[in-house]
Amino acid sequence: MWHDSGSVSTTHWTEPAPIYENPRTKRRFHSLLEVCGLIKLVQKLKPRLASIAEIILVHDLSYVKKVEVVSNSSGGYVGEEAHIAHGGYDIARLSVGS
Fold first, then answer.
1. Could you tell me what percent of the chain has a pLDDT over 70?
2. Within 10 Å of residue 80's Cβ, how many Cβ atoms?
């Protein structure tokens, strides 16, 4: 599942740059685990979608719905310094449900 968070600019005075939370950082981390041999100690889990009941243990239902709506559109900001890409809602549910 590919995830593209786009770019971000913290003010209207700065040039947008690629968001730091992207697939490249995960590939690099995985490669580092392989190179140093720690990958052998990692237990791979099959992801599952977290239920709404699980998510609202931490977030208000209104916020969860907002994230879902923004994710189902073209993506955007869902809070201060919190950006979600199109399709990011399901990716977030997979990361939490694991």
1. 86
2. 5
pTM of the model: 0.69
- Is 77 a domain residue? yes
Alpha carbon distance 50, 71 (integer Å): 16
Overall domain count for the chain: 1
The contacts of residue 87 (CB under 8 Å, 6+ apart) are 1, 3, 71, 75
Q: Please calculate the CA angle 74-75-76 and round it to the nearest 5 degrees.
A: 130
Note whether residue 2 is domain-resident.
no
- State yes or no: pLDDT of 9 exceeds 60: yes
* Residue 80 included in any domain: yes
